[in-house]
Amino acid sequence: MAQAVTLTVDDDLAIVRLGRAHGNAINDALAGDLIDACAEIEGNPEVRGVLFAAQGKLFCPGLDLQELVDLDRDAMHAFTVHFNTCVSALYNLSPPVVAALHGHAVAGGCVLGLTADWRVLAEGAMVGLNEVRVGVPFPFGVAMLLKASVPLAHLEEVALFGRNYTGTEAVESGLVHEVRPVAGFESYCMQRLAELASRDANALAITKRYLRRATAESMRQGDAELTGEFIDSWFRPETRRRILEVVEQLRARGKS
After folding, report:
1. Is residue 215 part of a domain?
2. Distance CA 14, CA 12 (A)
3. How remote is the C-alpha of 198 from its chain's centroid?
4. How large is the average pLDDT for residues 15-26?
5. For the chain, what is the domain count?
6. Between residues 217 and 1, which one has the greater pLDDT?
7. Residue 150 in this model has a pLDDT that exceeds 70
8. Are 24 and 57 in contact, with CB atoms under 8 Å apart?
9. Cα–Cα distance measured from residue 127 to residue 109, given in angstroms and rounded to the nearest whole number
10. Which burial class, exposed, middle or buried, applies to 99 when counting CB atoms under 10 A from its CB (0-12, 13-18, 19+)?
11. Centroid of chain to Cα 207
């Protein structure tokens, strides 16, 4: 089976690239590959920066509902723990990370992007967290990640209305730092990464760890305590009905 994520290192810069079916939707294999990529990066002291990118039209549409809808409670609990571990591994990476959101990054895809230090969105691409519209709450760690990433003035709007944003509204919401044209998009993101990677690696890594320590610890503790509450919500009859409706729509569009 082909890897859902590839890791390449050119000189001192790494590229972590999503690349699986269903538009890079998140399943257990993708989460596992991301965890492995993070471990490999942490084990390579030569890596001074990471570009988080994807192939295909989308960056990531979130969880692979077509696959996850068939999981029973125990299997879904195991996946959720794995996904939370993946998010934490990305958030705690020592080198600076630039997320190149060349296509839509919504729901869990937006969550993956939020783990980066700098987020660049392509013109015309959407970013947002629409979980509440499906009746699914954020895992606790995701809520803490969002709280640490989005300005307080926009936090409730982003978290509770379930909107997707493009262009300047995406920047104003705090979900991304800048929007760039599609032409030359990834090259620009690499330039941004090179700028960050040119700083003293030790000073940057320590500063990043200090900035993120409280949130990272809160994510770890809260996910350990409250994953069961997320699973309870996932298996509510009304939530299951909405998830099945989304799955049916996806399959009707030929994305099964």
Report:
1. no
2. 7
3. 25
4. 94
5. 1
6. 217
7. yes
8. no
9. 8
10. buried
11. 22
CATH of the domain at 78: 3.90.226.10
**CB within 8 Å of 162: residues ≥ 6 apart:** 128, 129, 130, 131, 132, 133
DSSP 137: P
Find the DSSP H helices in the chain.
21-24, 28-42, 65-68, 73-91, 108-114, 131-134, 140-149, 152-161, 167-173, 185-197, 201-234, 237-252
At residue 16, what are phi and psi to the nearest 5 degrees? Answer: -100, 115
In a domain, 230, yes or no: no
Report yes or no on 164 lying in a domain: yes
pTM exceeds cut of 0.90: yes
Q: Which domain holds residue 22?
A: 5-183
pLDDT confidence tier of residue 8, bands split at 50, 70 and 90? very high
Whether 210 is in a domain gets the answer: no
Distance CA 216, CA 90 (A): 11
For the chain, the C-alpha Rg in angstroms (whole number) is: 17
Q: What is the pLDDT of residues 152-203, one digit of tens each?
A: 999 999 999 999 999 999 999 999 999 999 999 999 999 999 999 999 999 9
Residue 18 in tokens: 């999503």
